[in-house]
Amino acid sequence: MTATATTNGATGRTADSGVPVVAFTDVNKSYGAVHAVAGLSLELHPGETVALLGPNGAGKSTALDLLLGLKNADRGSVRVFGATPAQAIAAGQVGAMLQSGGLMEEVTVRELVGLACDLHPKAYPVDQVLAAAGITDFASRLVDKLSGGQEQRVRFALATAGANDLIVLDEPTVGMDVGARQAFWATMRGQVDQGRTVLFATHYLEEADAVADRVLVMNRGRLIADGTAAEIKARAGARRITFDLEGPIDEAALRALPHLVGLEVTGPTVRIRSDDADATTHAVYGLGLYPRNLEVAGLGLEQAFLALTEGAGASAGEQTAAGTGDDKAGKR
Amino acid sequence: MNTLVKLEILRTLRNRKFMFFSVLYPGVLFLIVTAGAGKDKKLGGSDLTLVAYYMVAMAAFGAMTAVLMGNAERIAREREKGWVRQLRLTALPGRGYVTAKIASAATVSLPSIVIVLVLGAAVKGVRLDAWQWAAILVSIWAGSMVFAALGVAIGYVATADVARPLSMLCYFVLAMLGGLWIPFTTFPGWLRTLAGYLPGRAYAALGQTIEFGNAPHAKDIAVLVVYLVLFAGTAAWLYRKDTRKA
To answer: Which sequence ranges are marked TM in the entry (chain A) (predicted)?
Structure first.
């Protein structure tokens, strides 16, 4: 709206300008004794589709609130297109869909979307926004009378009422059935294809795996992993090697195996997480052991995520293992 | 921003229950308060009838109640539901939100004032010059916006549970000290001085001065304008600064 904001908008959209879409620098936010976000630093770049993962209470929603200027950081800086979140929003660069954003009541869907279009500095025509969100059918219904899934689509329409450069979605498909979820991501891909940067927090790991080209994992207010879904899986020990051994088991020797990320021994059964299963298995034979019932299986992103977040919280040994090769996880 | 103003007015009109009670309440109150008063009974030491005095007082008090209570509670509830968070993700400036809320409150207060004045003329036989009727209507209506702004600010400070008692407290104190219930002339001197700088008194004085055939005092108008700017400014600031979970 202002001259400065427009300048930022111009630079923000050129992909190689070097200005990150979002830049968190050592951001801290506490509620009393709880450090919701602790020393968070990250950058998002134009055109990326980024998934933000983490267990409940990991600080995802707080991080998004800070990004959107709904909360202020205690320490550190949050920049969006090189400006403050409020400036970026006023310039119409950011569209956001909140987890439980209430809607204005006693108005129709069309009236509400019309309001979002009216308020957006770079708005699309109302009919186009309604059609893109797939809500034209019930556009004349009152907002108070919508189902949960319909409300969610209306929120999506509000987030995409204009030509935003960044779209932020907090748990966008919560409460949607499988069909609605697929339709939602099909719509989102349309946005991504137009060169938008998309950041979404989710509990559905298969969504992150299928949609995102970059995955951030938060736990206890910190970023513990940052990479492609494949990298995250590898980092967590993407393969699980299971076998039985006879006689006494020398745990120390097993722990020294190459590429080992996690080790668990229950009775005769040994479970190893490895980021290079071939090399690890080879070394097992190299120790002169004779593993029986050997199985090597790939881990999904879900198991990788669990391994990462449990490792960061529980045992110190696991924590360093999960942090190996991850420059961000080691920083405290 | 104009769309928001339009929508806020529209949804107020659609909320029939809210409209019904807010619009009729001042009129009913006026009939109850003046039920025992004779039509010709004069206010102590003046030409004005007691009924005429209460007509203006109740029109003002009723309009003030409707906008203060209505705004405070509705806004606190909207904040709790998260609509205000969503709205803050748009380019809407703080003053846009406050303007829309005041406009929707004014939609309620105008008919409520008209009803009291019509009842006064038709049922209670109050006789005033044409310009006085018009001036009383306009000044009470315009003045009610000060309390609408106060309502927005309260809706921002309080949770939905606290908004109602807090706005009740505000209007009791302001209405009482404004002489809307007990004639201002019965107050001791020090209280009159204090009340003179509160919005309730200045608001009541607008209509009453006109009733006595005079133009409203510049001081009363100034007091109201100062409070309007103060309340609306606070509300707009709170809208933008609201970083609580709400």
So the answer is: none
Question: How many separate domains does chain B show?
Answer: 1
Structural domain of B198 = 2-241
For B150-191, how does the pLDDT look when each residue is reduced to its tens digit (9 = 90+)?
A: 999 999 888 888 888 998 898 888 888 877 677 777 888 888
CA distance B81 to B7: 18
Q: In the numeric block, which tokens belong to residue A101?
A: 């954003």
Cα–Cα distance, A237 to B196 (Å, whole number): 76
CA distances from A62 to A8, A175, A206, A218, B238 (A): 25, 21, 23, 11, 20
Task: Check: CB of residue B213 under 8 Å from CB of residue B46.
Answer: no
Q: How many whole angstroms from its chain centre is CA A94?
A: 17
B→A interface, C-beta within 8 Å: 1-4, 7, 10-11, 14-15, 78, 80-93, 240, 243
Interface contact B10-A107, CB threshold 8 A: yes
Sign of CA dihedral B89, B92, B94, B97: negative
Mutation target for B interface from A29, A109, A118, A145: give the one with most B CBs within 10 A.
Answer: A118
List the single best residue of B89, B95, B244 to mutate versus A (max A Cβ within 10 A): B89
DSSP-derived secondary structure letter, A4? H
**Would B227 be classed as within a structural domain?**
yes
Contact B75, B11 (CB under 8 A): no
A1-5, A157-161, B97-101: least confidently modelled range: A1-5
Q: Is residue B119 part of a domain?
A: yes
| Residue B237, SS3 per DSSP | helix
Look at residue A14 and tell me whether its pLDDT is greater than 90: no
Look at the block and give the residue holding tokens 């600064």: B241
Q: Which domains does chain A have, with CATH numbers?
A: 3-231 (3.40.50.300), 234-323 (3.30.70.980)
Residue A317 is predicted with a pLDDT of 34
What is the length of chain A? Answer: 332
Mean pLDDT for the stretch of residues B89-108 = 88
Helix (H, G, I), strand (E, B) or coil at A269: strand
Question: Is position B109 within any domain?
Answer: yes
d(CA B52, CA B49): 5
Helices (H), chain B: 2-14, 16-33, 50-81, 83-87, 94-122, 130-157, 160-177, 189-196, 199-211, 218-241
Summarize pLDDT for A274-328 with one digit per residue, the tens.
Answer: 878 888 989 999 888 889 899 887 766 777 777 777 765 443 333 333 333 333 3
Rounded CA gap, A17 and B154, in Å?
45
Question: Does B246 map to a domain?
Answer: no
Alpha-carbon distance of B66 to B108, in angstroms, equals: 7
Complex ipTM, two decimals? 0.83
CA–CA dist A183, A154 (Å, integer): 14
